[in-house]
C-alpha cells in the first residue's frame, strides 16, 4: 500500500486505546480519531467516507455499544471491528448478537498486530505504512530536529536514558516516542510517576509484593517491572524516588533482577529503563538525596527537552497543530491565528511550555468568535512584540517572574487559582515561585 492508499483512511476508535495502540495505528499510516464514550457521550465523532470503526469493548460495554449504534445510524455502511478483552461468555446473548455483525472480532489484551491485519483486510489494503518517526514530536526548530535525531540514535540501544527538561516540555512524550521507535515497541510501556506515589507504596508498585509481606498485603502483587517484562519502564520524576527504592532500582539496572517485597527470590526481568526529572540530579547527589552510583547508571544517555522559548519557529507550528487536532474533534469556527496573536505567542515566555500552549490554544478555539484567533482569545498581551528577540533571551527570565507575579496578584496569591489562569499544574506554580524566589506566605 502506498501512502496514497492510506490518505483519508481513518479509524474511529470507540473506547479508549492505549497509547501504544494509538501510536501503533498512527505509525501504520492510519489517521485515528478517538471517541471515548465516557467523555463524548451523545456526540458521535465526524466520520468520513473512508472510515472504519473499532468498537473497544474492553472497558464499559454498554456506552461503547450505544455510541457505535449512533455512528451506524448516521453511517449505515460503516464497517467495524470488535475488540473484546476476553471471549464473550456464551450466555451474553446481546453481546454475541452485536459481535456477529462485526467485520471481524479480536479477543485478547494486546490486539495491535491482529488489529492492523484486520484493518488491512477490511479496507483491501495490502501493507502498512510506517509514519515518519520525527512526526511523533511536532516541531521544526534546530533544537527539536537535533532531539529527533538523538531519539532515533538512542532508540535501538539497550541502555538507560535520562530525560531532563522543564515542566510541559514533552519528556513523557519523548519517552513514549522512543519506545515506539525501539525494537520493544510491541511490548508494554509502563509509565510511573515516582513523585505521585506515597513513599510507603513505591516499592510495592515498582517491584511487587508477596501475600502477607506487610499489613494489608492480602494478595500477591506483581510490580510494574515484572509486568513490563520485554518492554520499557518510564520512571517520571525520578528525583522523588525514596532512597530504599533507589537501591532496588540499582539492582534492576546492574543485575536485571527484581525481588518482590517479602520474598528473597530474584526474578529476572528484561526491561529498558527511561527516567525523567525536572530537578537537578547532580545537585540532589551532592545533597545526598540521590545515590551517586544510580545517577551514573541512569545518566548513560541523556536527552534534554528544550523549553519552548528556545524552540524558534515551533510555537506557531505547534499552535496550528493543536488547533487542527482540536478542530478535527469539535469542528470549531476558529481555523488559524491573527498576526497579532502570532506575535503575542512568539513573545510570550511560556512558563508551562508545550502543555500551556496546548491548553491556551484549546481554550481560545472554544471561545473565539471569528475564524482567526486573537491575542485576547489566548489571554495574551497583544502589546508584547517579539521584535527584540535577543534582548528577550535574558529578559525572558524576568518576564517569566513578572508573569507569575502578575498572575499571583490577580489570583490573590491563591496557588490553585493562579495555576488555573496560567493553565499549568499547581506543582509548576510552586516550582516557578521557588525558581524566582517568590515567598508566597510572605507575599500574602
Ligand atoms: N512536540 C510535541 N508535539 C505535540 N504535543 C506535544 C509535544 N510536546 C509535548 N506535547 C504535549 O504537551 C503536553 C505535555 O507533554 P509531557 O507530559 O510529555 O511533558 P512533561 O515534560 O512530561 O511534563 P511534566 O514535567 O509536567 O511531567 C502533553 O499533552 C503532550 O501531548
Ligand atoms: Mg511528565
From TrEMBL:
Pfam families, alphabetized: AAA_lid_14 (PF25601), HTH_8 (PF02954), Sigma54_activat (PF00158)
SMART domains in UniProt: AAA (SM00382)
UniProt xrefs under Gene3D superfamilies: 1.10.8.60, Homeodomain-like, P-loop containing nucleotide triphosphate hydrolases
Keyword entries, A-Z: ATP-binding, DNA-binding, Nucleotide-binding, Transcription, Transcription regulation
Name assigned to this protein: Sigma-54 dependent transcriptional regulator
Keyword DNA-binding: yes
Taxonomic superkingdom: Bacteria
Entry keyword DNA-binding: yes
Sigma-54 factor interaction domain residues: 137-366
Matches recorded under InterPro entries: AAA+_ATPase, AAA_lid_NorR, CheY-like_superfamily, Homeodomain-like_sf, HTH_Fis, P-loop_NTPase, Sigma_54_int, Sigma_54_int_dom_ATP-bd_2
SUPFAM superfamilies (alphabetical): CheY-like, Homeodomain-like, P-loop containing nucleoside triphosphate hydrolases
Amino acid at each position: 500500500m502506498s501512502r496514497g492508499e492510506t490518505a483519508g483512511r481513518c479509524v474511529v476508535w470507540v473506547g479508549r486505546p492505549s497509547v501504544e495502540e494509538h501510536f501503533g495505528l498512527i505509525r501504520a499510516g492510519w489517521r485515528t480519531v478517538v471517541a471515548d464514550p465516557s467523555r463524548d457521550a451523545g456526540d458521535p465523532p465526524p466520520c468520513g467516507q473512508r472510515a472504519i470503526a473499532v468498537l473497544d469493548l474492553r472497558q464499559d460495554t454498554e456506552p461503547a455499544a450505544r455510541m457505535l449504534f449512533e455512528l451506524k445510524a448516521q453511517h449505515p455502511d460503516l464497517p467495524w471491528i470488535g475488540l473484546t478483552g476476553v471471549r464473550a461468555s456464551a450466555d451474553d446473548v446481546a453481546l454475541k448478537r452485536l459481535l456477529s455483525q462485526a467485520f471481524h472480532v479480536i479477543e485478547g489484551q494486546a490486539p495491535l498486530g491482529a488489529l492492523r491485519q484486520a484493518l488491512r483486510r477490511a479496507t483491501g489494503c495490502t501493507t502498512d505504512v510506517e509514519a515518519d518517526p520525527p512526526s511523533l514530536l511536532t516541531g521544526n526548530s534546530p533544537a527539536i530536529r537535533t532531539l529527533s535525531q538523538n531519539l532515533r540514535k538512542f532508540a535501538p540501544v539497550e541502555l538507560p536514558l535520562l530525560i531532563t527538561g522543564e515542566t510541559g516540555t514533552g519528556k513523557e512524550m519523548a519517552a513514549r516516542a522512543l519506545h515506539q521507535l525501539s525494537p520493544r515497541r510491541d511490548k508494554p510501556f509502563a509509565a510511573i510517576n515516582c513523585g505521585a506515589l506515597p513513599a510507603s507504596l513505591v516499592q510495592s508498585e515498582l517491584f511487587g509484593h508477596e501475600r502477607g509481606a506487610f499489613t494489608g498485603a492480602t494478595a500477591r502483587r506483581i510490580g510494574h517491572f515484572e509486568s513490563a517484562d520485554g518492554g520499557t519502564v518510564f520512571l517520571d520524576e525520578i528525583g522523588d524516588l525514596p532512597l530504599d527504592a533507589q537501591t532496588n532500582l540499582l539492582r534492576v539496572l546492574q543485575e536485571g533482577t527484581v525481588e518482590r517485597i517479602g520474598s528473597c527470590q530474584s526474578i529476572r526481568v528484561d526491561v529498558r529503563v527511561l527516567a525523567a526529572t525536572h530537578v537537578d540530579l547532580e545537585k540532589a547527589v551532592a545533597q545526598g538525596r540521590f545515590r551517586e552510583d544510580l545517577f551514573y547508571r541512569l545518566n548513560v544517555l541523556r536527552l534534554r527537552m528544550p523549553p519552548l522559548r528556545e524552540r524558534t519557529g515551533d510555537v506557531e507550528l505547534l499552535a496550528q497543530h493543536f488547533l487542527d487536532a482540536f478542530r478535527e474533534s469539535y469542528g470549531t469556527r476558529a481555523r488559524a491565528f491573527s498576526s497579532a496573536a502570532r506575535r503575542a505567542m512568539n513573545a510570550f515566555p511560556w512558563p508551562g511550555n508545550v502543555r500551556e500552549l496546548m491548553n491556551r490554544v484549546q481554550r481560545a478555539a472554544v471561545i473565539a468568535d471569528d475564524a482567526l484567533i486573537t491575542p485576547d482569545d489566548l489571554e495574551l498581551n497583544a502589546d508584547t512584540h517579539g521584535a527584540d528577540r535577543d534582548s528577550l533571551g535574558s529578559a525572558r527570565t524576568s518576564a517569566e517572574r513578572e508573569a507569575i507575579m502578575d498572575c499571583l496578584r490577580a489570583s490573590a496569591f491563591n496557588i490553585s487559582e493562579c495555576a488555573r489562569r496560567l493553565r499549568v499544574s499547581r506543582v509548576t506554580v510552586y516550582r516557578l515561585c521557588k525558581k524566582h524566589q517568590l515567598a508566597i506566605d510572605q507575599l500574602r
